[in-house]
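Posted in: Structural Biology > Protein-Ligand Complexes

Title: Requesting predicted complex, flavin-adenine dinucleotide in pocket

I'd be grateful if someone could produce the C-alpha cells for the following input. Sequence and ligand are given below.
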Amino acid sequence: MRWPHYEAGCHVSDPNQLTLALAKKVLERGARFDAHDVREIASQDRGIVLSYGDGSRETFEAVVLAAGAWSQPLAARLGDNIPLDTERGYNTTFPPGTLGLSRPVVFEGHGFVFTPLDTGDRIGGSVEFGGLKAAPNFKRMDVLLRRFQEFVPDAVLQGGRQWMGFRPSMPDSLPVISYPTQDRRIVYAFGHGHYGLTQAVVTARIVTHLVARTAPDIDPGPFSAQRF
Ligand SMILES: Cc1cc2nc3c(=O)[nH]c(=O)nc-3n(C[C@H](O)[C@H](O)[C@H](O)COP(=O)(O)OP(=O)(O)OC[C@H]3O[C@@H](n4cnc5c(N)ncnc54)[C@H](O)[C@@H]3O)c2cc1C
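-- Reply #1 --
Done. Output follows.
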C-alpha cells in the first residue's frame, strides 16, 4: 500500500502548553479568569444573567457560550434546540520516543493516528457515542494499540497514560458559530467535533466580529444555529 507524505504537514507539539501560552497572552491584555459551573443562562433586559453552581449570579453585556459538548442544555434554555451530541475519543500517551516513529502518521481507514508530542508518543482515535456521563471504556484503546502493533511490531507499548475526551459533534460536521434565535448579545461557539483545536483561531475571528456586531470576513451563514 502507498501512503501519501504531506511535506507541508505540521502538528502542535503540546496542546497544553499552547493553551497556557494563549491564556497568558489574554491575561496580559487585561482579561480576568474566573472558573464557575454555569447552571443557567438567562436573557434579561438588564443583561445576560449567568447563575453559578455556588448559588451566585453575574450579569454581563455579552456572553460567548463555548461549553463544548456540554453546550446543548444551556442553548436550550435560550430557546434553541440544537442537535449537539458527543463523539467520545480515546488516546494513550507513552514515554517520548518509545514507539519508534519520528513524525505524525495517520493510519487511514484504521481509525487512529500517531503523534510524537513533547510530552510523549501518543496513539489516539476511536469514535464512541456514549453520552456525557458513562465511564470510559478503555477496551476500545486496547483494540487501537493492538492494531498499531500490527503496523509497528517493535513498538514498546508500556507505561502508557490513558485518556478519554468528549468531541462536541454536530450531525452535519459543521460547528455552531452564531447568535441564538432570540438575543444578539449572546454568541454560540461550539460543535467543532474532531477539529476544535485546528479551527479555534478562525472561530475566534468570527466570534470577535459577532460580539462587536461587525461583518465577519468569513460568511458565518453555514454555522447558523437556525440551520436545523
Ligand atoms: C481523542 C480526541 C482527539 C482529538 N484530536 C484533535 C486533533 O487532532 N485536532 C483538532 O483540531 N481537534 C481534535 N480533537 C477535538 C478537540 O479536542 C475539540 O474539538 C475541542 O476541544 C473543542 O473545543 P471547545 O472549547 O469547543 O470544547 P472543550 O475543549 O470541551 O471545552 C469546553 C469547556 O467548557 C467547560 N464547561 C462545560 N460546561 C460548562 C458549564 N456549565 N460551566 C462552565 N464551564 C463549562 C468544560 O469544562 C470545558 O473546559 C480531538 C478530540 C478528542 C476527544
